[in-house]
Amino acid sequence: MATLLHIDSSVFPTQASASRAVTEAFRKHWQEQHPEGTVVYRDLAAEPVPHITADAHLAGFVPEAAHTPEQAAVFAERVKLIEELEQADAILIGAPMYNYTIPSTLKAWLDNVILMGRTAGENPSAKGTPVTVVASRGGSYAPGTPREGYEYVQNYLKAVLADALGLDVEFIVPELTMASKNPAMAELVPLYEASRDRAFEAAEARARKLAERLAA
Quaternary form (predicted)? Predict the structure, then answer.
């Protein structure tokens, strides 16, 4: 049966997090299609992975037989994360926008799993794996909006996930999530609600589509 790697990075619980709410919906529909499948779950807010260190970085460019004890210890942790990526049939990532970009915990996970000559480079080891990114944000950074130039979530993740790792990336973007909480955005509530509804519909459709693809 198929394996889903599910990663959340919001600092807020599901009831207060747009990204977690949508990834939870995706996972629910996924598990309905794969009741005997496996979900590998990482909550990067609750259990952050280590930020990359000099030993962890350099170990990726040195044969394992030549690793120092310090390099061997931290590289083993990187390999565990890399193997989760490689063994997944599909990947789900919650990536809320914090200060125009992704949470540092998600960046730390990416720094660990990007390994030249293995997951990145000429023949990425997880190439073609479908990844769904729920890129929530409090405002709107869509093309044509005043803050279009501040969009550093989708642009960055496309470069890393699609271009560097060779993954098959699709974004679901719940936007204007602060409209219901910020009185100054009250007139945008209908747009927020429409965006939220589209996100849940997209999560269900994407989960079912991937289920059909993997079952074929």
Answer: Homodimer.
